[in-house]
Every structure is written in C-alpha cells, then in structure tokens.
C-alpha cells in the first residue's frame, strides 16, 4: 500500500507470486463489482513458489492472444504493447482488456510488458528483461536504460512530427485513462500494479534524460486524472450507499432488513478503504513527481500573474500557510526576494478579495523579517487604510499596526499602562504623526475605522489622549504642536463616534447592521465610560482651546454621544454648569458658522425632555437667546435709521448677532421672538437701497427661511388655527417674491443664496405638500408663475453653464488653484441639482428642461450625470412630454446655429455635427424596448417634421425650407421607430411634401432624402422575406396533417379582381431605376391598385398614398398650406402611373387569375391528402408555386394577395411583433384575415 508520507521508489520482482487470483474480473458491471469488493482483497496478497508460477503462467497463456506478454493477431508476429498502441489498429478498449486478461493469468509478465511500454514510449531502444526486473533495483534499471538510450537525434515519440506520432500521443494518453478505468474495481487495489507503475514513473521523472522525464510526467498527469475520476465515482457510490443505509435504518422495526443493513454497512466500509487508497496514490504521484521534480513555489509565483482573480486568490492563500510557519522563513527567502514586488503590486488588484489576501500575506512577511519590505513597499500599503472598501482598509490597518505599533523596546517594560508617559501615549503620538504625514486630514474617521479591529484598545484609551492635551510635558519631553493637537482631537472624536455608533463611516459599508447582544453591551459600556470621562474633561478642554475654532468645533460634538442620565446619577451637575458656561463663552467669542452650529447642536443634544437636566439646560439656552434677540433688535433699529449711513462697526455687530441667531434657529424653534418682521424689514431695505452688505442679506434670507419652516412644522402638527395658516401663506409668498427680486442683484453670492432658498421653498410648498393625508395644507401650495420660472432658468444658464475660467466671482478672489476650481464646480453642481429637482417633481414646466438637456454634450464631464438622471426621471413621469422636450432642445440648438452661421451653413461644420451627435446620444437614452417608448418616439418625429417644414425658404419658392436640414438630425431617432410606425411617420412626412420636392436631387435636399431613406430602412429585406414567407407558409401548410380548412368567406369578385397589390409595382421598380422616387414601397403602404381607366385622376394617387380619415380631415397649419398643391400633384402622379400600368393591367389580371387558381388548386389538393402527405410529395408543390422564371415569379406576386400574410421577419422580431405589438390601423396586415386561401396560416 502506498502511503502519502513514505514514497517507495524502488521495486523488485517478487520471488514468490500467487497465480490463484480472484475469480472476479474487472470487466464486470460496476454495481456487481462493488458487491464483490471483498473477494479481490482476500486473495491479492497470496504467494506461491516460482515453479508453480511458471507452470501456471505457461498453461494459462497458451490459449490466449498473447504469448510471453506479446500480442498475436491472425498469425502475425508477436508485437509489444508499445507497437500495438503505436499502430493504432486495435481499439484501446480491446488492448486494455487483453492486457487485463494477461495480468490475471500472470501478473509479472503483464507488468513487465507495461514497464517496457513506458520505456519504449520514451524512445529507448533497450528493454527490461525478466531477470533485470527480478533482481535489479529501480534506480539500477533506469541507469541501465539510460546507457542504452540513443540521444543523438534528440527526438522521441512524443516530440516526433507526422500524423502517425501525433495519433500515437493521443493513443498513449487514452491508453492510460482506459487502463485505470478498467482496473478501478479490483486490480488497482492489489498493492502491486499501481505501486510498481507509480514507482517507475517517479524514478523516470527524475532522470537526466529529457525523453524519460517528459514521457513519465505526461503519463503521471494522465494517471492522476484517471484516479481523480475513480475517486469521484467512489464518492458518488459512498453517498448512494449512505442514503440507502439511512433509508433502511429509518424504517419501522417490522419492515427493517438487518441483513441488508449489514451489507450496506460493509459496502460503505469497503468503499471508504478504497477511497483512502486512491487518495494515497494521488498524494504519492503529486509529491513524488510534481513537488519533487518541479519546484512548486516557482509555479505558484508565476500563477500570481494569472488573469483569473480566483486563481490569484488561491495562490495567495496557499502562500499564507507557508509564511505562517516560522520554521520555513529561511527557506522562503529566495522566493520572497523574487516575487515580493508582485505581491506588493497585488495590494492594488482590481479584485478586492485578492487585494485583501495580498495585504495579509505581506503582514505575515513582516513577522518573518522587518528588513524584507522596503520603506516604499510599506508606504504602498499604508495609504490603503483610507480605501473605501472596508476589508482592504482593515487589512491595511492590521499591516500598519504590526509595522508601527507592535514593536516594544526594553525601556517600555516599566512604563504605566495609561497616561501621558504610558506606552499607549507614545503609540497615540505615533498615530497622530502618521495621520499628519498622510495629508488626508479630512479622513480621520477612515483611519480610525481601519485600525479599530486591531488597535481598538489603543483608540479607546481616552485618558491618555486627554493627558496629552491637558497635562504639561515632562522635562525633556517634546510637547505636541498646535497642528498635532488638532489632529489628536479629531482622532479622539472619530474614536468616540465609532465606539458609540458601531458602524463604519459614510462611504464604507452598506449601512447599519444589527448588533449582537455582546456588541450592544460593549456599546453601552463604552458610552458610559465616555460620559464619565469627558463630562469632567470637556469643560477643561473647551477652556484651554476656546479661541481655536477648529478644535472647539470638534470638541463641541462630544456631548452628542453622552449618556445624559449619568449627569444626574453620577452627581456631575457642577460639571454640566461648567460646560454650559464654556459653551456660552464660545458663542460670544466666535462668529464662524461651523462653531456656532456646533454650539447649537450641543444645546439641542442637551435639551432632551427625557432627562432631568432639561430644565437647567433650557433656562441657559433661553437666557442666551433672549440676549441675542434683544441685541439684534436694538442694533437693527439703529442700523436702519433713515438719513444715516451705517458704519462698518455697526454692520459687523448686526452681522455677528444675526449669524448667531441664524445658527441657533436651524436647530431650535425661535418663533416666539417674531424674527420674520425684523428680517423682512432688513431685506426690504437692502433691496430698496442696494447698499446692504452681502453677508447680512445672505444670513437674513437664511434666518427668514428657518422662520417659515418652523412655522410650517407647527401648522403641520394640526394644532394651529386658521389665522396661523393665513399668516404663514402671506409670509411664504412675500418671502418668495423678495428672493425673486434678489435674483437680479449685482452680487453673485446673494443671487446664489436667493436661488437656493427659492428652489427649496418651491419644493416644500409644491403640490406634494398635501401628500400623506395632509389635505389641510392645500392652501399653502405655491406654483411659480412663468416669470419666476424664466428667472430661475436664466440664473442656471448664466451661473452654471459657464467655462471654468469665467467663474471669477464665485471663487471670492481665491487663488486659481485646483482646490478652488473643484469647490466652485461642486457649488455649481448643487445649483443645477436644485433646479433639476424642480423639473423632476413637476414644480416647473418640463419643457424648461430643454435648455438644460441641450448642454448635455458640451458640459458632459461636469454635469453629465445630473442631466442624464434628470432625463431618466422625466421620462418616467411623462414619456411623451419628455420626448417633446428633447426635440425642443435640439430645435433650440438648431436655431442658435442658424443665427450664428446663417441659412447657408455647411452640414459638415462642427456646430451641426455637434447637434447630430447630441441627437444620437438622446436616441440611446430611449433604450432597447421600443414598445415602451413607441408613442414618445412617434411624437418626437411629428414635432421634428413640423419644425423642418415650418419656415419657408428665404430664397423663394423652389428652394428647400429654412429648417429642412433638421431632418438630418431627426434621422438619428428613426432606428427607434417600430417598422409599422415608420409607415405612419412616412405618410405624415408626405403631407408636407410637394411633388417637386420628391424629384429634387441637389445637395440641399439631401436631408429630406436621407430622412426618407431612414424611414424606409429594411425595405429590401422585407421584400425578400415576402417571397420566403410565402414559400415557408406553403410548406408549413402542407406539413400540417388533417387540419381542417378555415371557414372564412371568400373574397367578393371585386376584391379578387383588385387583388394586385403594390408589391408588384415595387418588384417592377427593382428593374427600372428611372422610376420616380415617390413611387410607393410595399412596406410603407399596402393598398389595392385599380385599373387606371376606372379611376378618377385624384383616386389614382390617393389609392397609393393612403392615409386615415383623420389625417384627410385634419387641416394643415396656415404656414404649411402654401406648400401643398393637391390637384397638380395628384394629376402628375396619375399620369406617370397610368402610362406605365395601362399597357399591363389587363394582361397582369389574366395571369394573376390563372396563377391564383393554380395555387389554390395545389393547396386544396395538399389539404385533401391530409395525414397521407409524405415529405417526398411536398417538393413538387413547392416547385409549382415557386417558378424559376422571373416573369412568372412576378405574376405570382401579382396574383397572390400578400395582404393576407405577415412578412416573414427573423423569428425573434416577427414573433415579438405578433405577440406584443398593438394593431396599427396603418398596417394593412392588421385588418386582413387569414382565411383567403381557406387555410390557417399559423
């Protein structure tokens, strides 16, 4: 038995062998064989004397097709196994069966033949004799064969050219697979054949002769593949046996068969033993051939470049197991030095799972040696702590922690655990240094989240952080700089937020997850500890850094994470009083918006009615607001006195007080102080005088906006009176008019503020305010009039769709650097998004979006995503109106081009090509489902056609209309039309055309020609499909057995006489290129042509270009009527048709009647034959119908009424149209029945 741990590469010829083999054979049925597995194992280790072996082998081999291991076929000379496989005349299955029979008779001779097979397949001229096999070691035999090997040529069977050797290679591989498959039930488990073969292949794979190495390795690979299939079969049998065993055991005692249970149990045991043996064989091949001969790690390193992410992932996980073993570190140095760069580059792999494992592998490399990775290697991993993908960031955080924080010197052993002089204190300073060096100060939350899992204890050491901020440095210790203190406060705030919220920062993760009971307990404990620590320390920190706006802003956010009950239970009321005093001082010292809003949010967090501290905090807040409002009213009265110009000091006092009130009004209801009157007065004065400082106007607008919103919140609760509703309505409308007036201000910042507030107010007080059962607010709905909509749109066009270099006002004199450009672009994007929301929610007319949509191409990089999303949302609201808006935007661009270039512009100009490209982009936004956008696309074409013919030519009659070139742009949407809708659109187009237009061929008329061609696209395909569809339907009719004919009525004689459709005219047109372009095409209209002699002049035209009664009765617009000359047009067309048809009409009718009768006779005959119809009888009918002569084919087309059939399009399209499309009354196929031939066509 081959063991995975001990591979025996030597084999000897046994001195004794047993010829009493098992009576079962490997050629039996697998199920029967599985039941007899015990027999093969019982006798496979038997031994006998050499004399007995010789006798038995000679006696049993006399009657077989092999003598001494050689084949005999039809009296031919003896051939070796190699020669048989090489010739390939015998089936591999037969060759293997003969060898198995020989092995059962004398396994030594058969095995010797197999050994020589592998030797000779390598190209060696020598052979292993029975004496050599019996007495020589494996290595000695291989050495002997090497001496006899002729290496002069260098060729051997696997590398030789020619069809014979190419076939030999495949036969060689097939032989090994079939051999294992046929021996899988007993022989491979006899601990003799497989041991010998594996030992031989292992030794040959390590030979110095390339032919031995190549051949044996290929044989080992095929042997391994075959063993894998055997293992798979064993696994399946084991599962089946286990399932049978469980089913039998679960039966009731009376029906349970104990004998069957024992047999199934024994069978499962034997299968498990066989499975173990197969696994040992595969391990022996893998370790003896591949691992031993081929340096495994080298291939793993190369495979890390594989294109498949899963392969790269498996390589990294396999290497992690090796690097985790410290004993292998020294032996991996060569591999590390060679493939380190590749591993480092894989940290940026496009597959996040691969990147994570690459970082983890580098972390293990750090354990082996700190000198392996250079500083550049580490820095490439450090920045990944700011990755948006959390698993990558966490792995990078672990790498950073191992590199910077895990090494402790002997001097740190006696240091305290917490505090400024503690180990954590030094590590916190290291974290601050790293944060500052990364220069990503706005991403402190990302750094904390990356380190949270591996350095959570360090980040929760808030005592050490407070000590570093408040305590004086020790002698010789370097104090933190102002910049470092700011970074430490930010990291401390992020750590507190992470501990209390227990979810990653914004942009990392998919949302909040459900916390486990343990995580909830940890969260509560951390929050309690944070409150106990910072309730005492926060007033001290605010007092120390009260003049630093950035530090104070971060510190004031800490109370949002407090457990306020601890102020009472922990008897910390005095610290609360100290905190409130510090917040008041901060409000009095600062005018920065961020600081004031942080103070406002802190009061909002502390003013919680659920806690006992509410009254104390509410009193402090009310006192502060009373003082601020009184001061503001006093200052405002002096500031607005008539006849006096306010100085800068008065303006600053008003502005600073207004800033504080506005910041608090954002989070607190200040309605009782009536701030609307004072702010409205301030805004009105500024509007009248025009000299109000812009910051005062901006904050007055914002404060008034907050007043209205708080009033709306109160009214929405339902506790207000009717007077409150009336007051709010008057205040809201007056404020909107005030903001509208400020849209014309000379100051850009003021206009931006007015625009933003107007958009918000219009959204809030739109028709959606009554949703969610709030019908009582219907009186507050405010719909902007046309003037306000126009001013909002003009603001967007003047302040958003501008070049970057022209945006000088919005940067406020900042340096023209990249940061200021990004900030200005972000502001413009917000302005555009605010206006687009008005379009999406139907606050303003949708057609105002035309001015936005037409900028799609020009400003694609800046606003493309916003405009595209707006188009998508508007299409969901109203597809038709959205399509009209899109075509309106193209019309506006076309008119602008005409005003710039004149009416004689070049269609190859950049302006025209840009409009056409924009139309192509618009067309792509409609998607692939033409049914959903059918009406919208049709309306788009209608508006486009009307626009093209709207204005007459300025050069007089006979010249193309002024906007005719617009049809070239409109053709970009033709592909979105359904085939049947193209007919309708084409008919609508012809209503605007004169006969002279149809005959024009000058370049100026090319847009009309190209547009008509786009509406006729696929006409040739449709014509040929008529013929093929006719043939296929005739064949399908005959193939249906015993199907009764339909009971539809026959056509009237008048109908039959007029059954010559325009298909014949179209077919004739293919042969006459001189036919005028206005000749009808069958895919546009399919109406009956009468005898010209019987038709009035106007009928001869109108019969071809038929339109509905609605279209006939619909009057044309006045500006279009002068283009139409109905009588002249019809008369000319009638003359052209009559000249051509009079001579052929009667002759065509006669031939049509004959062919129709003949066709009908054949079809009726086919139906009568019913189920007796044979396929051999079908062809003559097809030959009769599909005549070879072109004239006869034309007659057939004329005689048959194709209006009774659908055109045979490709299956997907035709089937879809038949099943999904609505009937179109312009399509004649939708009004015809399928009973003309008394045969159902489907």
UniProtKB/TrEMBL annotation:
Give residue ranges for domain SCD. 260-346
Which spans does this entry mark as compositional bias, Gly residues? Answer: 56-66
Composition-biased stretches (Low complexity): 1025-1037
Where is it predominantly found?
A: nucleus
Give start-end positions of Basic residues composition bias.
36-48
- The organism's superkingdom is given as Eukaryota
Which GO biological process entries does UniProt record here?
Answer: cell division; chromosome segregation; sister chromatid cohesion
> Could you tell me the keywords of this UniProt record?
Cell cycle, Cell division, Chromosome, Chromosome partition, Coiled coil, Nucleus
Pfam families hit by this protein: HEAT_SCC3-SA, SCD, STAG
- Identify the stretch(es) annotated as Disordered: 1-72, 1017-1064, 1201-1229
- Locate the coiled-coil region(s) and give their ranges: 231-284
Alphabetical GO CC annotations of the entry are: chromatin; chromosome, centromeric region; cohesin complex; nucleus
Q: Where in the cell is it found?
A: Nucleus; Chromosome; Chromosome, Centromere
Q: Which GO terms describe its molecular function?
A: chromatin binding
* Similarity remark: Belongs to the SCC3 family.
Say what the protein does: Component of cohesin complex, a complex required for the cohesion of sister chromatids after DNA replication. The cohesin complex apparently forms a large proteinaceous ring within which sister chromatids can be trapped. At anaphase, the complex is cleaved and dissociates from chromatin, allowing sister chromatids to segregate.
User: Quaternary structure per UniProt?
Assistant: Part of the cohesin complex which is composed of a heterodimer between a SMC1 protein (SMC1A or SMC1B) and SMC3, which are attached via their hinge domain, and RAD21 which link them at their heads, and one STAG protein.
- Identification of the protein by name: Cohesin subunit SA
Species this chain originates from: Oncorhynchus tshawytscha
């Amino acid at each position: 038995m081959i063991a995975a741990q001990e591979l025996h590469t030597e084999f000897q010829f046994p001195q004794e062998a047993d010829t009493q083999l098992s009576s079962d054979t490997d050629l039996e049925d697998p199920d029967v064989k599985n039941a007899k597995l015990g027999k093969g194992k019982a006798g496979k280790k038997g031994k006998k004397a050499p004399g007995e072996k010789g006798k038995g082998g000679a006696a049993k081999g006399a009657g077989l097709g092999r003598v001494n291991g050689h084949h005999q076929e039809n009296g031919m000379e003896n051939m070796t196994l190699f020669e048989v496989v090489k010739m390939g005349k015998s089936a591999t299955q037969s060759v293997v069966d003969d060898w198995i029979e020989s092995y059962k008779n004398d396994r030594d001779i058969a095995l010797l033949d197999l050994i020589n097979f592998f030797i000779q397949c390598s190209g060696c001229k020598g052979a292993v004799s029975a004496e050599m096999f019996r007495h020589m070691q494996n290595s000695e035999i291989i050495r002997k064969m090497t001496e006899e090997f002729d290496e002069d040529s260098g060729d051997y069977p696997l590398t030789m050219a020619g069809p014979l050797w190419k076939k030999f290679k495949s036969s060689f591989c097939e032989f090994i697979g079939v051999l294992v498959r046929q021996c899988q039930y007993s022989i491979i488990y006899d601990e003799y054949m497989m041991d010998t073969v594996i030992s031989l292949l292992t030794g040959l794979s390590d030979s110095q002769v390339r032919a031995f190495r190549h051949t044996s390795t290929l044989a080992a690979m095929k042997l391994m593949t075959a063993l894998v299939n055997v293992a798979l079969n064993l696994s399946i049998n084991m599962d089946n046996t286990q399932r049978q065993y469980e089913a039998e055991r679960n039966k009731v005692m009376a029906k349970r068969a104990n004998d069957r249970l024992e047999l199934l149990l024994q069978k499962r045991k034997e299968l498990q033993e066989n499975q173990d043996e197969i696994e040992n064989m595969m391990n022996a091949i893998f370790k003896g051939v591949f691992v031993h001969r081929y340096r495994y790690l080298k291939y793993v390193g190369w495979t890390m470049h594989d294109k498949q992410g899963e392969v790269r992932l498996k390589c990294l996980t396999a290497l992690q197991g090796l690097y985790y073993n410290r004993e292998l570190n020294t032996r991996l140095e060569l591999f590390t030095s060679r493939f380190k760069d590749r591993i480092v580059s894989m940290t940026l792999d496009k597959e996040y799972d691969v990147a994570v494992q690459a970082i983890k592998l580098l972390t293990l490399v750090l354990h082996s040696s700190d000198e392996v990775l250079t500083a550049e290697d580490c820095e490439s991993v450090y920045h990944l702590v700011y990755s948006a993908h959390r698993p990558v960031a966490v792995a990078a955080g672990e790498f950073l922690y191992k590199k910077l924080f895990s090494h402790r010197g002997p001097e740190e052993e006696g240091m305290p655990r917490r505090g400024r002089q503690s180990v954590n204190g030094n590590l916190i300073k290291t974290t601050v240094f790293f944060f500052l060096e990364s220069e990503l100060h706005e991403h402190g939350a990302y750094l904390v989240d990356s380190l949270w899992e591996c350095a959570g204890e360090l980040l929760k050491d808030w005592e050490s952080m407070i000590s570093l901020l408040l305590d004086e440095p020790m002698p010789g210790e370097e104090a933190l700089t102002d910049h470092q203190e700011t970074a430490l406060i930010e990291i401390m705030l992020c750590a507190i937020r992470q501990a209390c919220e227990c979810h990653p920062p914004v942009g990392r993760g998919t949302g909040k997850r459900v916390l486990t009971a343990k995580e909830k307990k940890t969260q509560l404990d951390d929050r309690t500890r944070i409150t106990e620590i910072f309730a005492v320390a926060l007033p001290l920190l605010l007092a120390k850094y009260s003049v630093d706006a950035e530090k104070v802003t971060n510190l004031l956010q800490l109370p949002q994470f407090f457990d306020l009950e601890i102020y009472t239970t922990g008897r910390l009321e005095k610290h609360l009083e100290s905190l409130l005093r510090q917040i008041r001082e901060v409000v009095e010292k600062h005018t920065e918006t961020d600081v004031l809003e942080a103070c406002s949010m802190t009061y909002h967090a502390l003013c919680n009615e659920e806690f006992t501290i509410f009254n104390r905090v509410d009193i402090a807040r009310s006192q502060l607001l009373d003082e601020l409002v009184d001061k503001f009213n006093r200052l405002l009265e002096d500031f607005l006195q008539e006849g006096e110009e306010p100085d800068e000091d008065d303006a600053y006092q008003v502005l600073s007080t207004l800033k504080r009130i506005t910041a608090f009004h954002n989070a607190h209801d200040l309605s009782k102080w009536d701030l609307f009157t004072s702010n409205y007065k301030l805004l009105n004065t500024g509007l009248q005088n025009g000299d109000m400082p812009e910051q005062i106007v901006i904050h007055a607008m914002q404060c008034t906006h907050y007043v209205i919103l708080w009033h709306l919140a109160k009214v929405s609760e339902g506790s207000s009176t009717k007077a409150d509703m009336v007051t709010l309505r008057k205040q809201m409308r007056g404020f909107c008019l005030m903001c509208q007036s400020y849209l014309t201000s000379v100051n850009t910042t003021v206009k931006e503020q007015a625009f933003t507030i107007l958009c918000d107010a219009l959204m809030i007080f739109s028709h959606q305010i009554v949703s969610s059962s709030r019908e009582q607010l219907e009186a507050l709905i405010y719909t902007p009039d046309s003037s306000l909509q126009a001013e909002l749109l003009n603001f967007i066009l003047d302040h958003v769709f501008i070049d970057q270099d022209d945006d000088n006002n919005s940067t406020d004199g900042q340096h023209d650097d990249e940061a200021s450009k990004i900030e200005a672009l972000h502001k413009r994007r917000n302005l555009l998004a605010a206006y687009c929301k008005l379009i999406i929610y139907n606050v303003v007319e949708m057609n105002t979006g035309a001015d936005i949509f037409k900028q799609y191409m020009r400003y694609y990089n800046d606003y493309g995503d916003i405009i595209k999303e707006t188009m998508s949302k508007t299409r969901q609201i109203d597809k038709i109106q959205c399509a009209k808006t899109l075509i309106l935007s193209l019309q506006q661009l076309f008119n602008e081009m005409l005003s710039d270039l004149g009416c004689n512009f070049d269609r190859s100009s950049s302006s025209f090509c840009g409009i056409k490209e924009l139309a192509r982009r618009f067309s792509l936004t409609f998607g692939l489902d033409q049914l959903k956008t059918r009406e919208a696309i049709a309306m788009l074409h209608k508006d486009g056609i009307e626009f093209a013919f709207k204005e007459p030519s300025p050069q007089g009659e006979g010249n193309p209309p002024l906007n005719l070139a617009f049809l070239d742009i409109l053709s970009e949407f033709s592909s979105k039309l359904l085939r049947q809708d193209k007919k309708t659109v084409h008919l609508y187009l012809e209503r605007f055309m004169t006969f002279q237009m149809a005959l024009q061929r000058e370049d100026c008329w090319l847009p009309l020609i190209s547009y008509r061609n786009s509406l006729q696209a696929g006409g040739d395909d449709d014509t040929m499909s008529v013929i093929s569809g006719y043939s296929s339907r005739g064949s399908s009719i005959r193939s249906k057995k015993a199907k009764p004919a339909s009971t539809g009525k026959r056509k009237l004689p008048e109908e039959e006489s007029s059954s010559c459709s325009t298909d014949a005219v179209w077919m004739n047109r293919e042969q006459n290129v001189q036919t005028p372009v206005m000749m009808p095409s069958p895919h546009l209209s399919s109406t009956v042509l009468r005898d010209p002699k019987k038709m009035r002049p106007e009928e001869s035209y109108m019969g071809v270009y038929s339109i509905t009664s609605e279209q006939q009765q619909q009057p044309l617009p006045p500006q279009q009527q002068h283009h139409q000359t109905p009588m002249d047009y019809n008369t000319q067309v009638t003359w052209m048709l009559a000249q051509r048809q009079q001579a052929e009409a009667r002759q065509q009718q006669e031939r049509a009647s004959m062919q129709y009768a003949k066709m009908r006779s054949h079809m009726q005959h086919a139906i009568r034959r019913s189920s007796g119809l044979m396929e051999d009888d079908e062809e003559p009918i097809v030959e009769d119908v599909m005549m070879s002569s072109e004239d006869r084919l034309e007659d057939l087309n004329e005689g048959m009424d194709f209006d009774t059939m659908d055109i045979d399009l490709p299956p997907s399209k035709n089937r879809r149209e038949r099943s999904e499309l609505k009937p179109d009354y312009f399509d004649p196929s939708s009004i015809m029945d399928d009973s003309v031939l008394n045969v159902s066509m489907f």
